[in-house]
Amino acid sequence: MAGKSLLSLFAVLLWSPKVLCYVEDLDDTFKEKRMDEVWLVEFYAPWCGYCKKLEPVWYEVGAELKSSGSLINVGKMDATAFSSVASEFGVRGYPTIKLLKGDLAYNYKGPRTKEDIIEFANRVAGPVVRALPSRQMFEGVLNRHSVLFVYIGGDSPLKEKYIEVASEMIVYTYFFSALEDALPTNVTLQELPSVAVFKDRTYFLYDAYQDGELSSWVNRERFRGYLHIDGFTLYELGETGKLVAIAVVDEKNLTEESVRLKTLIQRVATEYRDHFSRDFQFGHMDGNDYINSLIMGEVPVPSIIVLNTSNDQYFLLGEPVKTLDQLVQFIHSVLDGSAQAQGGDGIFQRIKRVAFDARSTVMSVFRSSPLLGCFLFGLPLGVISLMCYGICTAESDDGTEELDLLKREALPEEDEYEDRRREGEEEEEEERQEEKSAADKKVD
Prior knowledge:
Blueprint: H1 2-14, H2 17-20, E1 23-25, H3 30-33, E2 38-44, H4 49-67, E3 72-78, H5 83-88, E4 96-101, E5 104-107, H6 114-125, E6 130-131, H7 135-144, E7 147-152, H8 157-169, E8 174-178, E9 194-199, E10 202-205, H9 208-211, H10 214-221, E11 226-228, H11 231-237, E12 243-249, H12 256-271, H13 273-276, E13 280-286, H14 289-295, E14 303-308, E15 313-316, H15 324-336, E16 342-343, H16 347-368, H17 370-443
Parallel strand pairs: 1-3, 2-3, 6-8, 7-8, 11-13, 12-13
Antiparallel strand pairs: 2-4, 4-5, 7-9, 9-10, 12-14, 14-15, 15-16
């Protein structure tokens, strides 16, 4: 991936200045001129690796929007150099992509690909609610979009609420309005006005009594019933409050068991929609690397796992899934709380997460660059070892010096004792000599 990114960047650098000028470098004067135009802006930091990876894609976005005749201006701003402007727009990480339209600022949270960014920009830059005046246009929109919401009817309090919700959720999906005579022939309404979501080759009507707030219903229904799930999608699914049932497979080496598990998940999503769509999202994920990092464990491939992204819990079957009824029963047990939950966000799991992330970081560095890993982690360990050795050696020397000092202090006492002993012996010798002299005199 890194090599591909470098090649893309090299290709961008070879482009003509005309192509590069489609992306404008912005400064603090940008605040004054942005109000009358629509801007798609990347806030970046020069040291950010993700920003460098996005750079060639960003120039491609600018070139394609300009060549298509779009009125959207594309720019980039060094958020570290113009931190006050970045703070005003609520930039807290890099890169941050925002579409600015008048007083409104819309955050982009999807995959950082040219196609996804352009689709987001064109959707948000246009009207919040687009009109569908004819059946032909309605059917054309259905063919272009996998999920779309439609308000059907004239002016009403429901329409006002619909426009309000659309202004908040336009970053995720499309919103349209139509009269009843523009609907496809297979659409039947129970009442007017109505709000419908069209997806999965069918449609579903909003029921205020059963579905609650319109905004909550839109948030739950903005995904297709069955998805190819990746990291970005799973992050967005977390905002819906749904549990996510995933078939973990290896798409590069699809086995019969992998295909069977994917089919079972798809069948549950379709055949049991009325039972589970409010609480579950269904899909499959290619590979288990991302799941393993979430649960800090190893998920076998293929297998089925249910994730609760709100509290980091997950559920696994204790035995292989053989039938559709077995899978449905397992999902029911997760929903009613009888299934055993693993993981969570308790204090033990948080400590485990810190240790797991640290270990993953170290392993990632060593895998990508063993020499760099040895330098980053070996050098500090070497320094710490030398410090420990120095401390231990210093303590040993201090002890030796104290012993020498005690010896030196003890030496004068020993010398003094020796001198007294010698004096005593000399005195005794003198006394013996005197006694001997006295005895000799008596003899004489």
